[in-house]
Fold this sequence. Notes:
Strand content: 15-25%
Structural class: alpha/beta
Distance between the termini: 7 Å
Radius of gyration: 22 Å
CATH architecture of the largest domain: 3-Layer(aba) Sandwich
Largest sheet: 8 strands, mixed
CATH class of the largest domain: Alpha Beta
Shape: globular
Amino acid sequence: xxxxxxxxxxxLPMHSGYTFRTRAILKAQAAMGFExxxxxxxxxxxxxxxxxxxxxxxxxxxxGRASGFAxxxxxxxxxxxxxxxxxxxxxxxxxxxxxxxxxxxxxAALRVARRHGIPLVYxxxxxxxxxxxxNGTGTEGSLKYRLTRGLESHVVARADAVVTICEGLKADxxxxxxxxxxxTVMPNGVDLTLFGKPLPRDPELARALGxxxxxxxxxxxxxxxxFYDYEGIDVLIDAMALLAERQPDARLLLVGxxxxxxxxxxxxxxxxxxxxIRFIGRVPHHEVDRYYALADIMAYPxxxxxxxxxxxxxxxxxAMAQGKLxxxxxxxxxxxLVTHGTTGVLFxxxxxxxxxxTLAEMLEHRGRWDDxxxxxxQHVRAQHDWAANAARYRDVYQMVSPVAAGNGLGVAA
Length: 413
């Protein structure tokens, strides 16, 4: 049976899009017959002990702390993380190392892979230099930006196989000189055992939030996710005042948190539509479905940037799996997920008026809602179900590992 050690920035029990994708990958691979574990770096901040179980999965933890000025600190972090990977390799003896971005994970794994002669698969979920620009912690073209990009290219060139989550990231790597045949696209997916059975609307919760007028349910626009600037939640807040001109009973439901939360609350309080906007804050993952059930339309107004044009988000797929209508800005990452007029609708990014007009059109044409819902759900089942998509990893592992090729592509002999 092939053993795969996943090298990770962080993992469960921490909650993030990163950890949920990791959970889905490991669970799906285990169901296919692989033995899987993870090893996390210094940025994992939850849990104790050298090895920890979370949701039935085992993770080796790397302890330590890196200090120094920028650049030197990250290099030291790579060294400490490599030591943690080394310990996990000596204890468990995996057949494949599967490192996931950022490039710090890839570089640490590369050191250990070459030392032990273990094949390395490197998976890119986003270019982290662009993510830093998007969340306000970096500047495009800065020294740190260029160093991060250079390290990523170094790891990609030396890995035995490369995986990306979308065509946008693959195209960028190919433009840098990477052979397209070395890159496999493993699209974002949904674990339909978790998201495939939507909850009914909770009328008491709806009333408590003021989502009824004269005993009638209000139309609800929802956003569930992290509050970063690139998500465009400020655009959505501004759009609500315009939407009220055509849909005066419409409400906006905002679930989540992040660095922009305080500024967004101030913006909402100053809006003419302030009474229609509800901030819920962060909620436990097991309660998210209750809030999905309140929304008619899930809105994703991402701003146009290099990050949003290249990277596909997970949330629109979760919304489709929940049977929700999807309205998203017309950026590259969304165009890979949403077929305009079929599985959802796209509107011009960075434009509150375009956002409001699209939402109003959807609310005024309820006769199409069932078609959108059905098309969205079928799209997720056909293209983004982890139980099916994870099978592509077999081909990647077979390509790099004689062990995987020799025991039925990762299934126990």
